[in-house]
Design a protein that fits this description.
By secondary structure, this protein is an alpha+beta fold. Helices cover 21% and strands 37% of the residues. The strands form four sheets. A five-stranded antiparallel beta sheet has the order 6-5-4-1-7. The radius of gyration is 25 Å and the shape is flat. It contains one helix and 14 strands; from the N terminus they run αββββββββββββββ. It starts with 11 loop residues before the first helix and ends with a strand. Strand 12 and strand 13 form a beta hairpin. The longest helix is centred in the first third of the chain and has 36 residues. It folds into three domains: 37 residues; 59 residues, Roll (SH3 type barrels), CATH 2.30.30; 62 residues, SH3 type barrels.
């Protein structure tokens, strides 16, 4: 604490030192809170991404097998985690719809994507100058594991091991 407040008769040098001390503490707190907020945003971006890691999985209307099956999804389908209850995740899909999936059917360890447009050309390299691959075109809801990114292009692999490049804006990546 600043001694100048305890002994008001001291000179302006002490007031200046106290102001520097207070500013220093305030700046440290601002930096600490800023770092904390940044870490929360970074953590949340990764914490909410889930990827189906089995050949097929049911998306359900609630957290349990007694709930209706709403959608059958395939390996590498990207989902966004919303909540967790008794081993089940509430998830959002590429269309923004909410479903439930059992935790053993998904992983957060790999990055996945889903085609969000009617058709997406799959190329042999990262750009339109490359030929369309044998996988082309990928259709809406086709799912892929993300391998890497080069500029605006994403290298993907499907559940059969076939690889190609898709323009980033054509994919929903979680």
């Amino acid at each position: 604490m600043c001694a100048v407040f305890d002994n008001p008769g001291q000179g302006s040098l002490d007031i200046s030192m106290c102001l520097k001390y207070i500013i220093n503490i305030v700046m440290k707190k601002i930096l600490l809170y800023g770092l904390l907020v940044t870490l929360i945003f970074v953590f949340n971006a990764y914490a909410f991404a889930l990827c189906v890691n089995v050949p097929e999985a049911n998306l359900r209307g609630g957290p349990g097998t007694r709930y209706e099956k709403r959608w059958l999804v395939f390996k590498y389908t990207a989902l966004k985690k919303i909540a967790k209850r008794r081993g089940w995740y509430k998830v959002r899909d590429v269309d923004g719809d909410l479903h439930w999936i059992h935790g053993k059917l998904v992983t957060a360890k790999i990055k996945c994507s889903v085609v969000k447009v009617d058709k997406a050309n799959v190329r042999t390299g990262p750009g339109t100058r490359f030929k369309k691959s044998a996988m082309s075109p990928a259709i809406k809801y086709d799912s892929f594991r993300v391998i890497k990114r080069k500029g605006s292009w994403i290298k993907v692999v499907d559940e059969f091991g076939d690889k190609g490049w898709i323009f980033r804006k054509l994919l929903w990546i979680q």
